[in-house]
Amino acid sequence: MHCGLFFFLRRHYPGRRGRGHSGLHKCNSRTSARALRRHRKSRKEGRVNLPALRNLGAEEMSSQKYDCIVIGAGIQGSYTAYHLAKNNRKTLLIEQFALPHARGSSHGQTRIIRKAYEEDFYFHMMEESYLLWSHMEAESGVQLYRQTGLLVTGPEKSRDFQGMKEALELNRVPSVVLAPEEFPQHIPHFKLGDGHGAVVDTTAGVLYADRALKAVQGAFQKLGGVIKDGEKVSGITPGSEVTVTTASGAHKAASLVITAGPWANAVLSHVGLQLPLQVQKINVCYWREKVPGTYSVSRRFPCFIQLPSEMEKTDIYGLPSNEYPGLMKVCYHAGSETDPDQRDKQTDRGDVAILSSYISRHLPGLESVPAVVESCMYTVTPDHHFVLDRHPMHSNIIIGAGFSGHGFKFGPVVGKVLCELSLGRPPSHDLSPFKLQRFQNFLKSTL
Ligand SMILES: Cc1cc2nc3c(=O)[nH]c(=O)nc-3n(C[C@H](O)[C@H](O)[C@H](O)COP(=O)(O)OP(=O)(O)OC[C@H]3O[C@@H](n4cnc5c(N)ncnc54)[C@H](O)[C@@H]3O)c2cc1C
Asked: Peptide bond before 100: cis, by omega within 30 degrees of 0?
């Protein structure tokens, strides 16, 4: 279940007065001076006075002020920080874990990038995203994208398949419709379902995710941006100047961007907001090729998306073998609910059984038991669209959340619009599908 299926502004949330926040906020200069004296005295006497240390207060521990602070160094936060630095804003990117890490949503070697989207707003965002990814390739000197094409297949007459095919035509995305009789000569070793259509978005391909994240963070630092990793944000005090508290101190900035991925609601609780987000653990499955190379990127096997059918209720997607030689990544586009801090306690493998059955029927060149299973997380909204908006009460707090398992490819453009919101500039894309307000209506309609 979604957590409560609604968002709320807690009427009595601590907000500006700092009620309920850590002691750091309540610490005025007199108490912190006292604490500092106590701490120095203890040190002279060779005693370590931990409460005194805690009471040292934010002021003594960090005096840096920034134009903007970004919480969360996944792909969305890293790209937002990069765009802010590119706009000459003194920017701090804070990450709870030591970088790089594999505990959020942006790790792993590959992601699919495509223009094949039914919704026009995503298509327009992707047009710019491709351009910005290529700029990042040029700026970092690292290859981040490999064109492979994307096969979209599903019941020929279904709304999903027709919608995707029409969108590709309408938006003039270079694509090819493959009739069943010619399909095997173009894409061998893949058995189309009975009555299933096939269309290939030829612009699509693979993004090298880990490399991309490293490149964006490196570019941000080259622009003078500061990354503090291994620092978990434990408090936020809104105001015309926002204070962000971590175990190492307090950081201040004129604006704040929250891009905390699966921890979005944990961080948003500090600013009185909860969104209808469901965090799902995804089993990232790799399947061994019976003959090595059958589905390899070098033999031009494409990425694919299998749209829902009677057999599979949710999308299944795959990427050609590449990162692990001889292994192809094929995953189910949904998982079981998890607490992001307890990810590995979620051991449901129902999706793996569905994938095994799918592979036996459609990908006969793969063994039908996964050779490797890794973990990742989706943060899913009720309509599977993102949240890109301002906090309803604090206009200098910007939120990017709920990327619903398809946000990586949008990283450059999501970062750009979050940066624009943070700078008070009109966003370069229509953000109406991504407003917080839509959850209010959702709540009313379900009552
Ligand atoms: C298996 C899998 C396959 C996917 N495939 C695709 C695909 O093919 N194409 C595509 O476009 N997308 C894909 N996605 C989705 C995409 O990867 C995500 O939408 C995207 O990575 C989300 O990035 P993020 O920055 O929002 O979250 P994250 O990467 O999770 O970043 C959030 C960061 O915030 C940090 N943080 C949280 N709380 C705090 C705190 N209190 N203090 C400091 N830091 C904090 C976290 O540690 C984390 O590093 C896939 C996702 C998965 C899991």
From this structure: yes
- Can you tell me which atom of ligand 1 is nearest the CA of 107? 29
Distance CA 399, CA 296 (A): 39
Pocket mutation for ligand 1, best pick of 115, 150, 408 (most atoms within 8 Å of C-beta): 408
Q: Are 143 and 137 in contact (CB under 8 A)?
A: yes
- Pocket-forming residues, ligand 1, beta carbon under 6 Å: 71-77, 94-97, 104-106, 111-112, 232-233, 259-263, 267, 282, 284, 331, 376-378, 403, 405-409
Q: Which of 114, 129, 214, 263 to mutate to test the pocket of ligand 1 (most atoms within 8 A of CB)?
A: 263
List of residues 6+ apart from 211 with CB closer than 8 A: 109, 142, 143, 144
Active site residue 259: no
Instruction: Give yes or no for a contact between 100 and 235, defined as CB atoms under 8 angstroms apart.
Output: no
**What are the structural domains of the chain?**
8-103+211-276+384-446 (3.50.50.60), 150-202+278-380 (3.30.9.10)
Active site residue 409: yes
- The number of the ligand 1 atom at minimal distance from the alpha carbon of 377 is 53
State yes or no: is 43 an active-site residue: no
φ and ψ at residue 264, rounded to 5 degrees: -55, -50
Over residues 207-216, the pLDDT tens digits come to 999 999 999 9
Which residue out of 21, 107, 251, 288 is catalytically annotated?
A: 107
Each residue's pLDDT tens digit, 50-70: 333 333 444 445 557 999 999
Closest CA to 119 of 166, 158, 155, 154: 166
Q: Kindly give the pairing relationship between strand 226-228 and strand 91-94.
A: parallel
Ligand 1 centroid to Cα of residue 261, in Å, is: 5
pLDDT tens digits, one per residue of 133-150: 999 999 999 999 999 999
> Degrees (nearest 5) of the Cα angle 147, 280, 109?
30
Q: What is the pLDDT of residues 68-109, one digit of tens each?
A: 999 999 999 999 999 999 999 999 999 999 999 999 999 999
Which is nearest to 303 in space by CA: 107, 177, 114, 128?
114
> Cα(358)–Cα(436) distance, rounded to whole angstroms?
37
Distance 407 CA to ligand 1 centre (A): 8
**Phi and psi dihedrals of 332, rounded to 5?**
-95, 135
Cα 163 to averaged position of ligand 1 atoms, centre (Å): 28
**R_g over Cα of the chain:** 24
Q: Is 103 exposed, middle or buried (0-12, 13-18, 19+ CB in 10 A)?
A: middle
Distance of CA 384 to the CA centre of its chain: 13
Q: Which one of 409, 416, 429, 438 is the catalytic residue?
A: 409
